[in-house]
Design a protein that fits this description.
The protein is mainly beta. The chain has helices at residues 22-34, 174-183; strands at residues 2-13, 38-39, 43-58, 66-77, 84-93, 96-100, 107-110, 118-122, 130-136, 139-142, 148-157, 191-195, 202-203. It is built from two helices and 13 strands. The strands form three sheets. Strands 5-6-7-12-11 form a five-stranded mixed β-barrel. It has a four-stranded antiparallel sheet with strand order 1-4-3-2. Strands 8-9-10 form a three-stranded antiparallel sheet, with no helix packed on it. A hairpin with a 7-residue loop joins β8 (118-122) and β9 (130-136). The longest helix has 13 residues, at 22-34. The chain is elongated, with a radius of gyration of 23 Å.
Amino acid sequence: MFVMSEIEHTLRLPPHLLNRPLNAAIKGELESLFLDKVIDKLGLCVSMYDILSIDGGFIFPGDGASTYTARFRLVMFRPYVGEVISARLKESTKDGLRLSLGFFDDIYVPVPLMPNPYHTEPDPEHKNGTRWVWEYMGENYPIDWADEIRFRVHTVNYPPLPVEQGKDSEQKDSEEKDSRQKDLKPFAPMVITGSLDADGLGPTAWWV
């Protein structure tokens, strides 16, 4: 689930940081650049592990900042396909489940990967929500908000940045445009698709 990635990056060190120890100043700048950010194909950066080397310190004409090239290692969240992870329920809708690890929320279990057979019913705790219920040997096993949910990683995707669409024509009603924007999901640079359709997956309480 967590891996180490070695990266080389060239950065500017602003003049107001030059009175600090070089390693500490460089580390602070790197953390502001990478922590809690997704790097394509590498995953989500959760921690700076160490700095391997710092080279440079050049000041280019017309620039008061020093430029350094640093090699460093980051701790990345990058689960592999087939890995089993425990999470908590964040959303439950007719389209499936959204799960959360606390530090990462873009985990989705779509309908085809839900445990079979199943049925859905209105969620008594959340208006307009859906509760998923697994049917097994005549018994019903609901997925509740308090459950710890074990899922298997089905895919890990890094969607491309969305391209800004051209402006609507003047004839479009502004209220309709605002409503459409509210329905759009925030862009997620890393999306995990999970599966509950196997023995041992789903709420851990099912398998006690």
